[in-house]
Every structure is written in C-alpha cells, then in structure tokens.
Design brief:
It contains 10 helices and 10 strands. The chain is of the alpha/beta class. Helix 9 links the parallel strand 9 and strand 10. The two termini are 23 Å apart.
Length: 343
C-alpha cells in the first residue's frame, strides 16, 4: 500500500508488483485555483482531511484487508515538507500498528516507475525524460535505485513555464491542460520563439540541459507588444507556438542523449508527459531514429500513489526497507535515492 502527498494530490494505491489493484487520487486543484498556484498550508490541511478516507477507499476498491499487505510505502522526498509529513507519518503509524516494513520513496523515482505500470516487460537500462511542474530531467535508469542525471533545466521546469505562460494569456490554473487544448486550434508557426540554450564555459551549448526562462520572457515581450499595438491577443496561435517550441526543445535533447548513450528506449514521466504536442513530436522524431518511446497512461502522468507503490514493490523485492526514523526532505537528487534505505 502506498501513499503520495508530496504536493496537491492526496493519493493512495495498492499494487501487486506492476499490477494496480486500486488507485485513489483526491485532487486539490479547485482549492488552489483562486490563488493561481499551490498554497503549502492549504495543501497540508487538505491532506490531513483526506488521507484516512483515501486509505479506506483503496482497500474497498481492491477488495483486500491488511493481511494481504506486505509493505507500506510513502513519498518522503522531494516536495512540500508539510504535505510530505502527512503521508509519511500516516505510513509510519500504519507500519507500526500492522507490523509491516516501511519503504520511503523518492517522488521522481515514482514517475520513472509510472512507465512500468503499463509496460510489464520494461527493464533497465533506458532513458527517462521526466517533465513536470517542478522538474525537467534526463535520467539514465541503470537499475532499481541506480540513476544518473544526464541533463536538467537550469531555471524554470517545463511545467512551470506552461503555468506562467498560461497566466500571461489569462488562461487560469493549472495552465498546461488549457494551453494543450488551445494549441490544437492554433498555428504553431505563427510566432518564432527561442527554445533556450545553456552555454558552456568552453564555448558552444550543453547538449542535454534545457532553459525555459528565456522562452517565457519572449512570450511576455510578445504579449506586451501586441497589447501596445492595441491588437487582440491571438491566444490559440500563441499557445500553439509556445507548446511546439517546448516540445521541440525537449525532443531534441532527449533524442541526442539516447543516441549518445546507446539507449534504445525513452520512457517519459511527469505531468507534462500528458501533453499531446510533446507526445506527437517526440514519437515522430524517435521513429526516424528507431527509438522506442513510452508514455504512461494519462492517469499515471500526474501525481498518483500507484507509481509510488510500484517503485516500493521493486525496492522491497531487492530487500530495501526504510527505518522508522526516516524523515522528509524538500529537495533531494534522485542519484541519492539509496540513502532512504537501510544497508
């Protein structure tokens, strides 16, 4: 049984290796929308209210009782500290009461394992393109708990850029789904926008690192100019041009990274993995290089506990368990994931 409370979804799931027996997700989007972003204190309070009902519902949906549970998992890093504490404290309490092993899970590792839920035969090594509101990374997946970060964003994450551009276009929160919807109606070539590159001290550009701050600023300047000229904002064309620029930038880096490291599979994870523009562009370009691209089902792109449970099941199978003294961390590199487990 796994609990995920790292941000603004209270999620509980019961999984058997890569099979999802139940998955409950209680979203807080409606609560945070008036603020245009996530309010940590509001998120923590709602996790406290929802975690017990979600646990009960997960057992009802799976048709199981505690005798069927081999371990209890919870996301412990990275994320909002108050939110993480709700899930981890719940998991620790249940582990003590029911005498089950505790498995702390790194949130980003969960997103990697989201692809395992729909691809039962997937095995390392492969490249993971992890794109969400807080992270944009290219991760070399070598095995359970064995990860190497090959590329990352130097400023805004891709999902963060989507939300900020949506705010510029007055589209509300969260911005990603709305930009995706409007982009399908627009002209992706209407406005040439900079994809953003990271300079190297020795000259040239980093082949795998990305930058979206400049792209966001370019959209801001474009919007300001159109408004100064007293022209109506062509929102659908702006959305299409922005989305295509992000998709091309991510695709270029992911393809180059996979080819350079001799990896034939790219698994995509995180909320932006649900973006139709990225899905279409990456799959089309990958096909020309004979690369296999895996996208999780939509319900496993955004935060959920099934992916956390899948990661925990693999760690438990390898004999990895966490001490009851385990704490939460707001920041933690995925390359340090084995620190969560006892030797």
């Amino acid at each position: 049984m796994a609990i995920e409370t790292s941000c603004d979804e209270t999620a509980v799931a019961i999984v058997k290796n890569r099979q999802v027996l139940s998955s409950i997700v209680s979203s807080q989007i409606a609560s945070h929308r008036p603020y245009g972003g996530i309010v940590p204190e509001v998120a923590s309070r709602q996790h406290v209210e929802m975690v017990n009902p979600a646990i009960a519902q997960a057992f009802t949906e799976a048709g199981l009782d505690w005798s069927a549970i081999d371990g209890i998992a919870a996301t412990c890093a990275p994320g909002l500290v108050g939110a993480l504490l709700v899930g981890l404290t719940s998991a620790k309490t249940l582990a003590l009461v029911h005498q089950k092993p505790l498995i702390g899970v790194h949130h980003l590792e969960g997103h990697i394992y989201a692809s395992y839920l729909s691809e039962p035969t997937l095995q390392p090594p492969f490249l993971c393109l992890l794109v969400s509101g807080g992270h944009t990374s290219l991760i070399y997946v070598k095995g359970c708990g064995d990860y190497q970060i090959l590329g990352q964003t130097r400023d805004d994450a891709a999902g963060e850029a989507f939300d900020k551009v949506a705010r510029l276009l007055d589209l509300g929160y969260p911005g990603g789904p709305e930009i995706d919807r409007l982009a399908k109606q627009g002209n992706p070539k209407a406005f040439p926008l900079p994809e953003g590159q990271v300079s190297l001290p020795t000259g040239g550009f980093h082949p795998y690192d990305s930058s979206f701050s400049g792209l966001k600023t370019a959209v801001l300047r474009l919007v300001q100019k159109l408004q100064q000229d007293d022209r109506p904002l062509p929102v659908v064309d702006l959305a299409a041009s922005f989305q295509t620029t992000v998709a091309k930038a991510l695709t270029k880096r992911a393809i180059a990274c996979a080819l350079d490291y001799g990896l034939t599979t790219i698994a995509v994870g995180g909320g932006v993995a649900a973006n139709s523009g990225l899905r279409q562009h990456l799959q089309a370009v990958a096909a020309t290089h004979n690369l296999n691209v895996l996208f999780p089902p939509m319900k496993f792109c955004t935060d959920n506990a099934a992916m956390i449970g899948c990661a925990a099941a693999d760690h438990l199978a390898h004999g990895h368990t966490s001490p009851l003294t385990l704490g939460v961390q707001s920041r933690m590199a995925i390359s340090e994931v084995m620190q969560l487990y006892q030797p």
